[in-house]
Amino acid sequence: MDAVSGRRLLWLGAAAAVLLIVLALLVGVLVGSSGAPASPGSAQPEGAPRPTSSLDPAPASLAPAAPTPTAAPATELFGPCSDLFSADMVSEIEPLQLNPSWVQSDPSVSVGTRDTQLASMLASLPHQTCVWAPADGPGEDLLTTNLTKLSGTEQDRVSMRLESAGYSCYDELSGMRCVTEATTDAGTVGESHFIRDGVWIATLWVNIEPSGYTHDIVDHVFS
Question: Measured between alpha carbons, how far is 221 from 147 in angstroms, rounded to an integer?
Fold first, then answer.
């Protein structure tokens, strides 16, 4: 074989090798592109960052809190409101009327406390509401009483809140009585809370504090 023929064969061999390499690369690309992508649930190397998407749930700390359920008032949990008060007490409270129709559309007068934590506790429990107010609409005088029943744990929570909030608490009528009073733009505002044997009687009063009012209710509930 002459020198020219040898060089020709050498070039042909090199060209064939290059062609084989190019074909191998093309086959690898085609095979890789036809494979199915890994699913989000497939195993990943330990410590590898987890892929995220717009459908991933928000972290629990950022999720909106579930609304606190509000129990509907039990209108006669302890019998009709009119039976809670003696004739002498009714005479002392008059001319205010018991549960005049307008209070149904004004929830602001139907809570027996100004403390937000105590009000939240009341709202979460079935309760009975008795409101003494002017017959024709809001006025200067108001008496609102909520009555509810408590479990042992709930009673402890209410008692602890009353004491930590600065109410004056003492033993009375075989239960615990807690009171407070303040002067506001509306006049003199006070509260009386009585807890005994799983019963909570919460009263908010504005400019009217009939003597023996809570005792009258206690006498009926525990008679």
Answer: 10
Q: Residues 191, 203: contact at Cβ < 8 Å?
A: yes
Residues 6 or more apart whose Cβ sits within 8 Å of residue 92: 210, 211
Tokens representing residue 166 in the block? 């600065």
| CATH number listed for the domain at residues 81-221 | 3.40.1000
pTM here?
0.68
- Alpha carbon distance 119, 129 (integer Å): 13
- Per DSSP, 108 falls in state G
pLDDT, one tens digit per residue, over 194-206 is: 999 999 999 999 9
- Alpha helices, H only, the chain: 3-34, 87-93, 116-123, 152-164, 213-221
How many residues does the structure list for the chain? 223
In our burial notation (b when 16+ CB lie closer than 10 A, e otherwise), range 74-98 reads eeebbeebeebbeeebeebbeebeb
Residue ranges per structural domain of the chain? 81-221
- Give the tens place of pLDDT for each residue, 48-84: 333 332 222 222 222 223 333 344 566 679 999 999 9
Query: What CA–CA distance (Å, rounded) separates 195 from 198?
Result: 7
